Amino acid sequence: MTPSTQRRIFLAVSLLVAGSALTVIAGGGIGENLVYFWTPAELHQNSDKAVGATIRLGGVVQANSVDWKMEEQHLSFTVGEAAVDEATPVRVTARGAPPQMFREGIGVVVEGTMLDEGVFQADKVMVKHSNEYRAPTEGTDPQTLYATVEEL
Amino acid sequence: MISLLGRAAILVALAACSVGAVAGLYGGWKGSAEAARWSRIMAWAFFGAVTVATGLMEYALLTHDFSVHYVSQVGSLDSPVWVSIVSLWSSLEGSILFWAFILGVYAAGQAWWTRDRFPAHSSWAMGMTLVIGVFFTFLVAGIANPFGLVDPAPANGPGPNPLLQNHILMVVHPPTLYLGYVGMTVPFAMGAAALLAGNINPAWSRALRNAMMVPWGFLTAGILLGGWWSYDVLGWGGYWAWDPVENASLLPWLTATAFLHSAMLMERKEQLKGWTLTLLMGSFLLTILGTFMTRSGVFNSVHSFTQSEIGPIFLGFLAVGLVFTVVLLAARIDKLAPPTEGLAGPVTRDVAFLAQNLVFTAITFTVLLGTVWPLLNEAISGERISVGEPYFNQWAVPLGFLLVFLMGVGPALPWGRPSASAMVTRAGLPALFTVLVVGLLLALDIRAPWPLAVFGASAFALWVTIGEMLAPGLARWRSTGGSLPIALWQASLKARRRQAGYIVHLGVILVAVGIAASSGWRHVHELTMIKNETTSVGRYTLTFLGSEAVQESHRTASVARFHVSAGSNELGTLEPRMNNYPRMGSPLPAPAVYSGPREDLYLSLVQVDPRTDLVSLQAVIQPMVWWIWFGGAVMAFGTVLAAWPARKGRPA
Questions:
Q1: Domain boundary residue among B116, B138, B160?
Q2: Cis peptide before B152 (omega within 30 of 0)
Q3: Contact state of A101 with B586 under an 8 Å Cβ cutoff
Q4: pTM here?
Q5: Number of domains within chain B
Q6: Does B292 or B403 have the greater pLDDT score?
Q7: Distance from B606 to chain A by nearest Cα, in Å?
Q8: Contacts of A97 in chain B (CB under 8 A)
Q9: Is B144 part of any domain?
Q10: pLDDT digit string (tens) for A10-66?
Q11: Confidence of residue B282 (pLDDT cuts 50, 70, 90)
Q12: A62-100 in b/e burial notation, b at 16+ Cβ within 10 A?
């Protein structure tokens, strides 16, 4: 083996070792910092790992469930799979005012974690815009598109 | 009419690019000056044709010619003129055209710059740049054709994505980022040319570094402007969220920064050639990966507003580029001349450079892993997740600290073997200064460990950097006497690139301090106020003066007005608003910021209704955010100074 081949093998091996060590260490860090995208039903299924984990929960605000205490800046409501969800409702509490457009029956995404007592503690409450801006797809007739826009 | 002309211009550009690419590669292979000349002429023709095409598209946007497909998608009679202009890069097809245009500008610049220099490499490099030009022009001609004809033409269009209309920075931020992204093509082509030609001389090394300086500067500015936009538009009171799109722009910046430093070793001592070229070519590949991530819609993030079949094509291009780079590096690395000398020793500037490179590589690796992890996870298990900010911070904070530390230690170390006494004189004063600064901060009851560590390392780096900047002038003054300012000025003129590099370092120090302070002491207050109510937030007093509905040509808005004072100091009125765009289902808050060197007061509306007297908002108080933007300006100034072309016959 010539010295230059030896050097190259040494380089390749050390790169490999460093790379895999970094992957293992960083990969472990990822596992502890995942954000799960769950619906209320999925949250119930994963109740074993929900406490303490970061969760982005998407659902619908249930009728007659909103409680907004302005003085304490305390908001709580129930989200479910659909407009009426008897099976898997999740009670959510948050600090701060409900966002613009927030109302019963609207889709929301809340980010936070599950507390031991079975209440979801949200750091962020976002209204899910069902008609979020989308670029027109190929083949959409601009005329009809504009007509629909004007209706808004 | 414009559809037809635009399409013709694109086809001319495609033809020019293809001919020029073949001519350039042939010229490099056979050493034919005639072929090289033809490839440069074709680069100019490419530039001319894409400029005409882009001009036609801007004309169509400004005259609201809805028979042009792209205009029918993003144009609107209600858009103000500036929105019409920036609509060029507001959606997929237009932004690929814009990409091709900027590549045309760079290709012409490269043709001009290398016209009578670097005979061994310039033809290869021109050919490679035009090969990449062929790919992008091909996209504009085919799958991302913005010039399609719409018949009959609609009377009006929807206008661009509201998020992009919400702030004037949208005029500056995307072009800056594009100039950075696209500009990476030129150093990539030049690096490939070095490998294809099988040699790299100091002149070409220096040329590579200069070619990287330009896109690096734009990328730096683009990333910081992106942070500023996020801060001023998105309303959550932060500037960086480790969003995949942000990461996409950060990744090539990290490798390019590492390259700019290891290239100094390559230029000076002919060391680390293979490694340096790997960083260089990797930077370009990361820009393509970034374009793929932002343009294919694989991530469900704010920026992925265009979803199309372009994703697989970019992925294919990325794969070809990766294979080409790896094969070329493996096949040709031996041909590059061996280093003239080894590393000087364990405690030298060489080793600081090496350590800096390793830290940059580690950050790149961890950010890349965290960014693509959700994709891999969803592909394998089908479970939708994302990687949270704590993962990124847990790596970026200590590694970022290490970088600031090395930025101080590196220049304090000599190039050669240091003696112990030399080390004490070089590092003694800055170390003393660091102890003083940290002691003062501790006395002020600042205890957060990481910010404190960053402040300490910044103090050390600041002293060393300023010392290094003054050293040549002081030496000149001691030997020749005369006026000190004149000696400093003349010595600086003689070492312009070196001084410019240190100015960039000063900018980095300011940015680092700004980030450490603003993320370390961030306070969020949730408020609900009734009209004429006064409340205090931090050291500020806020009075809610009321809200009103405003009708503008392209949107409606609810504007809330707050009177702000700090103690007896009247700071004026802040007007955060909630904008409603016809195409967006929910309103977009536009925050209002009172910004200063000490701290920012940031007001973002949560809920407002002019029909009632109530308003809910978030007030965020963060210290020293201002220093991030100011440091960015310092970095930009230093980069311009470094990249400014030297007068002929006087190498910089």
A1: B160
A2: yes
A3: yes
A4: 0.90
A5: 3
A6: B403
A7: 5
A8: 526, 528, 606-607, 616-617
A9: yes
A10: 777 877 888 887 777 777 778 788 888 889 999 999 888 889 889 999 899 999 999
A11: very high
A12: beeeeebeeeebebbbbbbbeeebeebbbbbbbebbbbb
- Joined tokens for residue B383: 């479970």
Cβ of residue B336 closer than 8 Å to a chain A Cβ: no
Among A102-106, B282-286, B433-437, B533-537, the minimum mean pLDDT is found in A102-106
Spatial distance between the Cα atoms of A18 and B227, rounded to a whole number of angstroms? 32
Nearest to A96 among B366, B384, B526 (CB): B526
Q: Does B384 touch chain A (CB under 8 A)?
A: yes
Find chain B residues with C-beta within 8 A of A146's C-beta.
154-158
| Pair B402, B449 in one domain | yes
Residues B558 and B447 in one domain: no
pLDDT at B308 over 80: no
Same domain? For B470 and B535 the reply is no
- Would B501 be classed as within a structural domain? yes
Non-local CB neighbours of B402 within 8 Å, separated by 6+ positions: B359
Angular region, B498: left φ>0, alpha ψ -120 to 50, beta rest: alpha
Which one of B154, B369, B394 has the shortest CB-CB distance to A142? B154
Average pLDDT, chain B: 89
B156 close to A (CB below 8 A): yes
Residues B545-555, mean pLDDT to the nearest whole number: 88
pLDDT at residue number B266: 86
Q: Which residues in chain A have their CB less than 8 angstroms from residue B390's CB? A: 33
pLDDT tens for each residue of A79-126: 998 888 888 899 999 998 888 888 888 888 899 999 988 899 999 888
B556 and B508 within one domain? no
**Which residue, among B586, B618, B620, would best test binding to A if mutated, counting the most A CBs under 10 Å from its CB?**
B586
Q: Is the pLDDT assigned to residue A139 strictly greater than 60?
A: no
On chain A, the residues whose CB falls within 8 A of the CB of B391 are: 29-30, 32-33
Within 8 A of A27 by CB-CB distance, chain B residues are 369
Is residue A37 within 8 Å of B384, Cβ to Cβ? Answer: yes
Residue B467's pLDDT band, with cuts at 50, 70 and 90, is: very high
- B394 interfaces chain A, CB cutoff of 8 Å: yes
Q: Which residue of B has its CA nearest to A131?
A: B585
User: CA B393 to CA B440: how far, in whole Å?
Assistant: 27
Residues B111-143: pLDDT tens digits?
Answer: 999 999 898 899 999 999 999 999 999 999 988
**pLDDT confidence of residue B577:** 92
pLDDT at residue B231 is higher than 60 = yes
pLDDT in tens, B59-74: 999 999 999 999 998 8
Whether residues B5 and B152 fall in one domain: yes
- Is B586 inside a domain boundary? yes
Of B306, B388, B587, the CB nearest to A34: B388
> Do B508 and B538 fall into the same domain?
no
* Domain encompassing residue B446: 392-520
- Whether residue B484 is contained in a domain is answered as yes
Say if the ipTM goes beyond 0.90: no
H, E, C per residue of chain A: CCHHHHHHHHHHHHHHHHHHHHHHHHHHHHHHCEEEEECHHHHHHCHHHHECCEEEEEEEECCCCCEEECCCCEEEEEEECCCCCCCCCEEEEEECCCCCCCCCCCEEEEEEEECCCCCEEEEEEEECCCCCCCCCCCCCCHHHHHHHHHHC
Q: Does B365 touch chain A (CB under 8 A)?
A: yes
- Decide which of B160, B180, B206 is a domain's last residue: B160
- In B67-96, the residues whose Cβ lies within 8 Å of chain A are 72-73, 91-92
Q: Are residues B62 and B113 in the same domain?
A: yes
Q: What is the pLDDT of residue B345?
A: 66
B509 Cα distance to chain centroid? 17
Cβ–Cβ pairs < 8 A, chains A and B: 121
Tell me what pLDDT residue B337 has: 62
Q: Are B23 and B120 within one domain?
A: yes
CB contact under 8 A, A146 and B306: no
Our CA-based measurement puts residue B492 at a distance from the nearest CA of chain A, in whole angstroms, of 40
